[in-house]
Each structure stands twice: as C-alpha cells, then as structure tokens.
C-alpha cells in the first residue's frame, strides 16, 4: 500500500508535468498557469523524500543522477527542514509541517557541536523556523543551547567568532563573510533569555567584520585571517572565489544579508550603510546579467562560467528586507521581483526526470573544487522560499 502510494506521488505529478510542458508549447498564453503548476509539483517532490536522520538532501551526486545526501553535521543540513517549514507557511498544507517536524528532530544533536560556526545556518533554519510557527518550548531550549555552544568560538582578542578549524597551519584564526549569517541565532537567544551576552558577541563580531572584510568599493573579501594575540587582520584571501581579490557572488550575498539582519536587531546606522553600499556594488555591477542571476564570481573571465542561483536568492531575500529600512526600496524590490520572475521558468526549475527534492537548478557551490557546479543546491531553494514569503507579506 505504502509502495503504491509512493509510486502514485511520483508518477501522477510527472504525467501532469509532461502534459503541462506540451500545453505550454502549443499555447503560450497558458505559460504562467503552467509555471505555477510546475512550481507546485517541485514543492510536492520535497514531501515524497523519505525522512532519514542520516540523509539530509544537499544537491546532486557526482553523476547528477540522484540526490547527494549529508549528515546533520554538514553546514547545509538545516535548510531542508527549513524549506518544509517555509512551504507550510506558504501553502498552509499540514503535510509540510508534519515532515518539517520529523526532519527537525534529527537536527537536535547539533546543538552540542562546537566544531563549527555554522550553528546559525543549521539550527536557526530548522528549529528557528519551527519555533516561529509552533512556539514549541523545546525548540526554544535547543536554540539557546546551540547559542551557548556557538559563543565558545568567540575570541576576545580578535573580537570575532572563529569560522573554520581546518587549515590551522596556514590560517591562525579565519573568519569568513558567511559567518555574519550565524549572528541571527545569537540575537534571538538574547531576545529569548534576556541575557545580553549573545547580543554583545554578535555586535562585536559584526563590528570586527565591518572593519576588515570590505574593500573600498564595498565588495567583500571571503576570508580574513586574524592574529589571536594582537587581534590584527593579517591576511585577506579567498576559499571559494576565483582569486583573493575577486568578488565571489554568494559572499556578496552573505554580506548584504548579514548587515541587513544585524540592522534589524540593533538599528545601528553603520550596518544599514554597509548593507546599502554592498547592495549598490552588486546591483550596479557591469557583469550582473540582465536576468538578475549572477555568475558564480564577478571576476571569472571565462565565457562559459556557471551562474549561481543561490547568490541571487540570498540577495533577493535580503533586499526585500532592506527595502523596509532604506530609501532605495524601489530598486531593491525591482531586483527581487526580477529574480523571482526569472527563476519561475522552465530554464531554472529542476529537471523533473531526476527524482530529487529540490526546486531550483543552476546554483554553484564550490567552483575552485569543481564541486556542486551549476546544479540544484538546498540553500538556493531556502532563500527563494524566504523571498516568496517576504513578497507575500509586503
Ligand atoms: N558557507 C559556505 C558557502 O556559502 O558555500
């Protein structure tokens, strides 16, 4: 019975999908209806992915023929439960909530994992999303414990949370721009407990990053390496960009999003100024394609370089929030609308013949390692859904 149901969930949407595609070619006026149906079918694909504590979906495998799965310790694990929570918010369909709860349970052990700065990505996107919807006290406790674990990575001399533990022989104390995203968990922990420790650490980290991570033109470096005795920034390099001085697209996104979110909790005008300045750098860049989806790195000279949908969705979502604080709101909303419009197209929706729980194609994870090149990645979907929700609340 279960097997039959599973077959029906896979085959019926596929049949519908092929009929939609055919219909679109024959009658272009039905295109928008068809695209929304295609989108809904992609959402449903997330529901039929079986809950398994050891198999959080992240992207495609090397052959691009099935899902690449990771353990909860991976930095991307929280996004899949987050996608289900957000789909529940978007659709009101209880089935998404049930699945979201089931996946979120398997994230809990990460609250004690002090070996990573990615606690915010993992716990805020799963338990945080869930807490907003359910007010479940246990979720709140997990978030506070996770924040306690995260602040063990704070170094007073540097004024930052340490990002990575690898490459210790080369990087004494690396901090990456992505780390700004983990501050949301700390700001929330102070709101939940009344203890200002978390908030103060988040502000100190944001101030140190503000001082050292941005270039004159307001693009950002990826990795800043600090001296743990003097606290000085001694090196500014890349790990996922094409070179140390390049503008890696998703890194620009983490900066814009990170300072917009930090402004939400602090109202510090310096954060708003940085978010706006970095948004200007990005939106005015001569190499930003007309359809709004950036290449993976602005400085890759290749003609056949891949796009990075995840950078576009992170920035679209961030700009929808920034629009609520800034006098440049029209420009920000226009970009977000363009990205959403571009992505709601057959070109960008995942290939339905691969049974994988993703919505959008064409993200690029780690170009220097030739890993996750031009394929669906779970966080591209997360920020897309967040942008849709922000749009619907406008
Ligand atoms: N935090 C890693 C990345 O953006 O790929």
What does this structure look like?
- This protein is globular.
- The chain has 394 residues and is mostly helical.
- It has a single domain, classed as Alpha/alpha barrel (Glycosyltransferase), CATH 1.50.10.10.
- It contains 13 helices and seven strands.
- The protein has helices at residues 2-26, 31-47, 79-91, 94-105, 119-134, 137-150, 183-193, 197-212, 249-266, 269-283, 309-322, 329-343, 378-392; strands at residues 56-60, 67-70, 154-155, 160-161, 174-176, 223-226, 233-237.
- Residues 1-30 have low confidence and may be disordered.
- The chain has a three-stranded antiparallel β-sheet with strand order 5-6-7, with no helix packed on it. Strands 1-2 form a two-stranded antiparallel ribbon.
- A hairpin with a 6-residue loop joins β1 and β2.
């Amino acid at each position: 019975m279960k097997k039959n149901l599973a077959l029906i969930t896979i085959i019926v949407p596929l049949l519908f999908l092929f009929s939609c595609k055919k219909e679109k070619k024959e009658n272009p006026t039905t295109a928008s209806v068809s695209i929304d149906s295609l989108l809904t079918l992609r959402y449903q694909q997330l529901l039929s992915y079986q809950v398994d504590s050891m198999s959080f979906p992240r992207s495609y495998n090397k052959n691009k023929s099935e899902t690449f799965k990771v353990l909860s310790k991976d930095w991307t694990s929280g996004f899949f439960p987050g996608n289900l929570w957000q789909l529940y918010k978007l659709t009101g369909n209880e089935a998404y909530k049930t699945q979201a709860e089931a996946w979120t349970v398997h994230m809990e052990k990460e609250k004690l994992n002090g070996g990573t700065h990615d606690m915010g990505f993992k716990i805020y996107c799963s338990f945080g999303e869930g807490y907003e919807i359910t007010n479940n006290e246990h979720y709140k406790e997990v978030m506070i414990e996770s924040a306690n674990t995260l602040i063990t990575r704070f170094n007073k001399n540097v004024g930052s949370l340490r990002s990575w533990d690898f490459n210790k022989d080369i990087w004494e104390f690396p901090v990456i721009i992505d780390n700004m995203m983990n501050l949301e968990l700390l700001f929330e922990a102070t709101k939940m407990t009344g203890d200002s420790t978390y908030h103060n650490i988040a502000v100190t980290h944001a101030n140190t990053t503000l001082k050292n991570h941005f270039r004159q033109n307001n693009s950002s470096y990826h990795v800043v390496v600090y001296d743990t005795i003097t606290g000085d920034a001694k090196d500014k390099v890349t790990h996922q960009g094409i070179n140390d001085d390049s503008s890696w697209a998703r890194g620009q996104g983490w900066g814009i999003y990170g300072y917009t979110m930090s402004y939400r909790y602090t109202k510090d005008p310096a954060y708003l100024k940085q978010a706006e300045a970095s948004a200007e750098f990005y939106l005015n860049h001569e190499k930003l394609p007309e359809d709004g989806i950036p290449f993976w790195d602005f400085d890759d000279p290749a003609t056949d370089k891949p796009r990075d949908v995840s950078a576009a969705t992170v920035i679209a979502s961030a700009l929808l929030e920034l629009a609520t604080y800034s006098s440049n709101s029209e420009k920000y909303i226009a970009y977000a609308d363009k990205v959403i419009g571009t992505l709601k197209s057959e070109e960008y929706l995942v290939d339905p013949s691969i049974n994988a729980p993703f919505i959008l194609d064409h993200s690029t994870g780690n170009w220097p390692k030739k890993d996750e090149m031009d394929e669906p990645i779970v966080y591209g979907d997360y920020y897309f859904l967040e942008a849709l929700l922000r749009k619907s609340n406008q």
